[in-house]
Design goal:
By secondary structure, the protein is α+β, with helices and mostly antiparallel strands. The protein has 4 helices and 6 strands; from the N terminus they run αββααββαββ. The protein is globular, with a radius of gyration of 14 Å. The structure holds iron/sulfur cluster (2 copies). Residues 22, 26-27, 31, 34-36, 54, 71, 73, 75-76 line the site of one iron/sulfur cluster (SF4).
Amino acid sequence: MDVAAKLTKNAIKADAESHIAIDAEVCRAKCTERHCERVCPAALYEWNAEAQRMVVEHAGCLECGTCLVACRHDALSWKYPKGGYGVQYRYG
Ligand code: SF4
Ligand code: SF4
């Protein structure tokens, strides 16, 4: 079974409140590389050209923390979702 197929086995209970906050002003003023878009394994980050801001679809987060490490400008505030919310990994 490939990785994409395995990921479909997981369940996510989405919280209406995002556990990821982005400082849009930092993105606009300092970032040219936008690593968050490339490193997220769930492809949750997307640059909104019209609004000139990075947006993230927090409900699909796999809680790997890669985006937090990859952002070189400290534009992200990241915490685990509240208890009972977030990804539930299923193995086998
Ligand atoms: S890598 Fe960081 S600073 Fe750059 S667009 Fe993403 S969140 Fe913003
Ligand atoms: S923690 Fe991982 S899955 Fe969640 S938004 Fe960041 S890179 Fe994507």
